[in-house]
Design goal:
Number of helices: 10
CATH architecture: 7 Propeller
Number of domains: 1
Distance between the termini: 91 Å
Radius of gyration: 34 Å
Number of strands: 33
């Protein structure tokens, strides 16, 4: 063993020093080891290069807030329009008491006389409407038939349609004939078991309760007759109906002489209020605003009227037991509004045209859509009474179409519930136009839309473009399901055409590649 002193001296002995060369001096001392020759020069770049813009994940706000902004809903509606196609065609071939109903009979007669110089009988769907929940669909025909369908049953049958000539009568809940022409059908908003029908050839409103299996209406409302110079009575036909949403007993109807009648069914079966115009012209369509305070009427002369139901005295008009007459608070001539659109006036001569239909946008209540007899459609902003959107398809005569057959029907378009898309039956072709009427200048139909405007990336500029859906028959009326966007089109041959996403089985989905779009 070593002595303790030797161990201590070993512990105190300093460690040997290592000589470290500085890195720059070492590199300079070995020229062959310099790394400068391996450096690639950087290419010249602009002094302020633009940063690379990447598309943002737009669903983040939707996932965090649980709410879909209107702008995002409008952008993804482009995918919805691309997915639409005809998936079902249901003919009106019903029997009543073992015999063909009037609509079915007129269809067979017209088919038999197609090559003969014989005037065709009245037929075609003249009115369509879903109830507020989209459970039932009501339709009326020019031949006088009222039909109520269960939508789920109708959609299920579109999966398994066959070429059999026998009609499947299980797809309707109610089918009856009124033995008179029918031109409009409406659901009572406050009582979804009740349906109202009217005709341009009668002064009566027929109210049916779908809970009762009866061909007779539960109530009939009528207007008072007018008298001619010779003392004979003249009854005004009714062209449209609107229900007050806050009260199941109140409704309105327009006639052929520029008057809107208002009923309170608790008081009488005759109207308690009349809204008049300056001209004795047919009011083809009426529409109530969301608060049931303002009613709009569209005339055959191309004028849109507006009345305030309060009349300056809230609800007194409905409490009066005497006839009350109110003039419109304002009126707009559409031709004058269209002349203010410079680009439109430069391309076409503008004349006063008959307004077939008006309808308020459910997702933007200040947009009042209108449709004209020449196939034009547009939007009137009811806040400033300016036309903000227009769609002007080629005229029917350009395709060699006969417009005389179109005069028998008032085309009745419909809004899709949540994305400001307007479904319009074409005036020249067999199909429907799906029009982008989004309330912004990015809309394809906006009068200030600039086609040269481009965004940074294609994903951010996924514009919604107008879409034409070809169908097997000409369309007279449209109705859109309030929840899933399925469109039901009524045709000139009295059939119902369903327009929705194409049916696709699970096996087909598995075979599709990941790059394919599946709807």
């Amino acid at each position: 063993m070593q002595p303790l002193q030797q161990l201590c001296s070993c512990a105190q002995k300093p460690a040997p020093r290592l000589h470290v060369f500085p890195l720059p001096d070492r590199l300079n001392s070995y020229p062959h080891a310099r790394m400068d020759k391996y450096v690639v020069p950087r290419p010249s770049s602009p002094p302020n290069p633009k940063p690379l813009r990447r598309s943002r994940w737009k669903m983040s706000l939707v996932e965090l807030n649980g709410r879909m902004p209107p702008k995002h809903r409008h952008e993804i509606s482009a995918l919805l329009l691309e997915s639409y196609a005809e998936i079902g065609d249901f003919a009106h071939c019903y029997n009543i008491g073992g015999q063909s109903c009037p609509t079915h009979l007129n269809r067979m007669v017209n088919d038999a006389n197609v090559d003969l110089q014989v005037p065709s009988r009245k037929e075609g769907i003249s009115g369509l409407e879903f109830d507020t929940k989209g459970i039932y669909l009501a339709s009326v025909t020019k031949s006088g038939c009222l039909t109520v369908h269960d939508f789920e049953t109708l959609y299920y049958l579109s999966h398994s349609q066959s070429s059999c000539l026998l009609e499947d009568e299980t797809k309707h809940l109610v089918h009856l004939t009124t033995h008179q022409q029918l031109d409009v059908v409406r659901w009572n908003i406050a009582n979804q078991d009740e349906v109202a029908c009217a005709s341009m050839q009668s002064n009566k409103i027929l109210l049916f309760d779908i809970g009762y299996i009866s061909s007779e209406p539960v109530e009939v409302l009528k207007t008072r007759p007018t008298f001619t110079v010779h003392g004979s009575e003249v009854y005004n036909g009714l062209s449209d109906i609107a229900f007050i949403s806050s009260d199941k007993s109140r409704l309105l109807a327009s006639d052929l002489y520029g008057v809107i009648y208002v009923w309170d069914r608790r008081m009488s079966d005759h109207p308690c209020l009349e809204l008049t115009t300056n001209l004795r012209s047919t009011l083809n369509s009426i529409q109530l605003n969301v608060e049931d305070r303002i009613v709009y009427g569209a005339s055959k002369q191309g004028i849109i009227y507006a009345w305030d139901l309060r009349g300056g005295r809230t609800s007194i008009a409905f409490q009066s037991h005497k006839e009350v007459y109110y003039p419109p608070v304002t009126s707009v001539k559409l031709a004058q509004m269209l002349e203010k659109i410079t680009s439109l006036k430069a391309q076409s001569d503008i004349y006063s045209k008959e307004i077939h239909s008006i309808d308020l946008d459910p997702s933007c209540p200040y947009q009042l859509a209108f449709h004209l007899d020449d196939g034009w459609s547009g939007v009137l902003n009811i806040y400033n009474f300016q036309v903000t959107h227009m769609h002007c398809p080629p005229p029917a005569w350009l395709h060699g179409k006969d417009m005389s057959t179109n005069s028998l029907h008032l085309r009745k378009p419909a809004w899709l519930g949540t994305c400001s898309i307007y479904a319009v039956g074409s005036s020249s072709d067999d199909g429907i136009h799906l029009l982008d009427f989004y309330p912004d200048s990015t809309s394809a139909c906006h009068v200030d839309f600039n086609e040269e405007t481009k965004s940074i990336s294609e994903e951010e500029n996924q514009r919604v473009l107008n879409k034409f859906i070809p169908l097997s028959k000409g369309v007279t009326a449209c109705a859109a399901h309030p929840l899933n966007g399925t469109i039901i089109a009524g045709t000139k041959q009295s059939s119902l055409v369903m327009v929705s996403q194409r049916h696709q089985s699970c096996s087909d989905i598995e075979e599709c590649s990941s790059s394919d779009k599946i709807f």
